[in-house]
Amino acid sequence: xxxxxxxxxxxxxxxxxxxxxxxxxxxxxxxxxxxxxxxxxxxxxxxxxxxxxxxxxxxxxxxxxxxxxxxxxxxxxxxxxxxxxxxxxxxxxxxxxxxxxxxxxxxxxxxxxxxxxxxxxxxxxxxxxxxxxxxxxxxxxxxxxxxxxxxxxxxxxxxxxxxxxxxxxxxxxxxxxxxxxxxxxxxxxxxxxxxxxxxxxxxxxxxxxxxxxxxxxxxxxxxxxxxxxxxxxxxxxxxxxxxxxxxxxxxxxxxxxxxxxxxxxxxxxxxxxxxxxxxxxxxxxxxxxxxxxxx
Length: 295
Fold this sequence. Notes:
It is built from 5 helices and 16 strands. It is of the alpha+beta class. Strands 3, 4, 5, 9 and 12 form a 5-stranded mixed beta sheet that branches. Strand 14 and strand 15 (about 280-285) form a beta hairpin. The longest helix has 29 residues, at about 105-135.
């Protein structure tokens, strides 16, 4: 336990998006610098490079102002020329010296030494962050927009379809389906319950194309006998988690998809995407991947 922890008097509100739901969190004192690595890994690429460019410009501008404090610390720079000192700072920070401008006083050498050290450190940090963002294992799975409930093998079944967009092999793929719903305790309090829904087949030896998950709505299912109105009253959500071994990246990859109760279509089936071409080869039409029809 940290005995001295600064608590903000006005903690900021954060919006967390889970699937299609937005949740507002309050009361957490989440400072910007306390989790900088996580922020650097989760922002979009444009924001990442824009932030890096702003830090680069701000740091070079700061060192240019520090050089201005000395008396002609840099050779071949007119007195008071901020832009020349700014360009010299860029060359120093990047450890690229062209030779025209160089430190000529002890003050200039000390500031340039500090800037070179910071520049090498930042270069290592940026290289690590960019490599970490590029090398993150990521499974490109295309999930159908809507789960469907219809008869399969003569019994009501919840079905969710997804496909491997890369068409590479994901070995030993496993899928888990979770149900989230609101329930009322004996004391009258409302809480969120998590339940795993058993699947007819939860493993795939080599996921390269598409896979449809089936959960039978029998007497053992938490969704047994529930209608669309019942799902809305309980604020039901579904979460699909898929993991497997990507044989190309030689890493374990994960993918997750969330659905809210309005997304579930009762009495619908997925459109058939399998066909045979004129020369007898199997053809998959991903243009109909999200299509459903009543039946």
